[in-house]
Amino acid sequence: MNECVVKNDRSFAPETKRCSCGNTRFYANQVCYHSIIVNGNNVFDSDIEIGESEKPYGTYTCTECKAEYEDLDELDNLPINKGGSVK
Ligand SMILES: [Zn+2]
Known about the structure:
mainly beta, three-stranded antiparallel β-sheet, binds zinc ion
């Protein structure tokens, strides 16, 4: 008996904080340092590699409802992130 179980379900994704609308994706900012090649006039020629990437930071904006959060820790105070029991 052949059983092929494909576990490709989103419920296996790690828990993440949610916006009050239930969305889990936010616009954020991140500083990246690229190593590049320039010509003799200091004009960009080509990428070598993406180097250091710093931790993303706010303001965070929900990609769905456009709610803004200075810090994702603010999401901990939303009822939707407190076990789902909304009073
Ligand atoms: Zn939202």
